[in-house]
Amino acid sequence: MSRKKIIALVVVVFLLWGIFSLAGLFWKKSGDKIETLLTVIALIKSQYYQPVSTEKLINGAIKGMVEGLDDPYSTYLDPEQFKHLNEQITGTFGGVGLIVTMEENHIVVVKPIPDTPAAKAGIKAGDIIVNISGRDTKGMDLDTAVSLMRGPVGTRVEVGILRPGEKETRMFTLVRENITIPTVESKMLDDKIGYIMLSQFTENSPQAVRKAIGDLKKKGMKGLIFDLRDNPGGELKAAVEIADIFVPRGKTIVYVDYRNQPDEEEKAEVPELGIPVVVLVNGGSASASEIVAGALKDWGVAVLVGEKTFGKGVVQSIFRLPGNAGLKLTVARYLTPKKHDINKKGIMPDVVVKQPAGSKEDRQLLKAKEILAEKIK
């Protein structure tokens, strides 16, 4: 090792040592661990059989620190992942067009977005994604899987699919395109029953839901089915604005319970919709979906039909870090209006209806139509 490299290494170590020394009491309690960290950095820099940048080591240390929280929702995001997350929030990104969920530690396709690379290639709802660009997805968290499938428009990604009933993995090479998530689909069903499906909560979702309701009202809607099945959540603000459409004015939508700052209480500000509503939920309904479903159930303004929700009752904030990296950190838990903590518990529907895997008949939707037909007679 050259004299210059040794001097640079010593400078890095002493800089890190000085930063940690400022912690005072923290140092007294954790000095041996910090010394171990600095020693490991120095040993890797000087003894590892291949050169490793200090940036890579520090990024690894930060990632390990966040992983040490044992919180599946707190994640260190490198610049590329942070960029993808911001694209997801705004609803437009470079990707392959798959809406996915987590089922028994597997990444499962909820549905391909029409006219996207995944749909054109023949990937179907129910397909299990077993690898992405050579990485095994068994036990992989949803955010990582989604991030791997996204990237610059025009680049390629290889996705391995295991179709139910088959033993061989199908490989798909997909070219990423600019994807706009169609978060809202709406239509008029029989008997003046409106139907709105929301696939994700983005910045644009509240406006899209209000527009869909307005269009259905013009067609004479007397009851509404609001489908939140397999909706993994999204923006807290979007969830509050959408719940506000249904919850009576002045009533609580959600409590946000922080550790080191005053709790927040979000209340409805606009008149409620005023027609019978059924909300469809299942095990893929999580986070923001559960905020909406919990508020509507607690105030009795909708009947929940389907299966128990996922049970994600914690709130994440996104922090921008130096170098365009980011930190998604759990900062609070949320409680329903009746102060129910649903984290790791989920919300049980008012009417439980199981949907058999592979069935072409949507039993949950049929039950919702039956309930509304009785209410709007």
UniProtKB/TrEMBL annotation:
EC number(s) reported in the record: 3.4.21.-
TM region(s), chain numbering: 6-27
Biological process, per Gene Ontology: proteolysis; signal transduction
Gene3D superfamilies: 2-enoyl-CoA Hydratase, Chain A, domain 1, 2.30.42.10, 3.30.750.44
GO molecular function: endopeptidase activity; serine-type peptidase activity
GO cellular component, as recorded: outer membrane-bounded periplasmic space
Pfam families: CtpB_N-like (PF22694), PDZ_6 (PF17820), Peptidase_S41 (PF03572)
Keyword list, A-Z: Hydrolase, Membrane, Protease, Serine protease, Transmembrane, Transmembrane helix
Coiled coil: none
Domain PDZ residue range list: 94-150
Family: Belongs to the peptidase S41A family.
Name the UniProt record assigns to this protein: Carboxyl-terminal protease
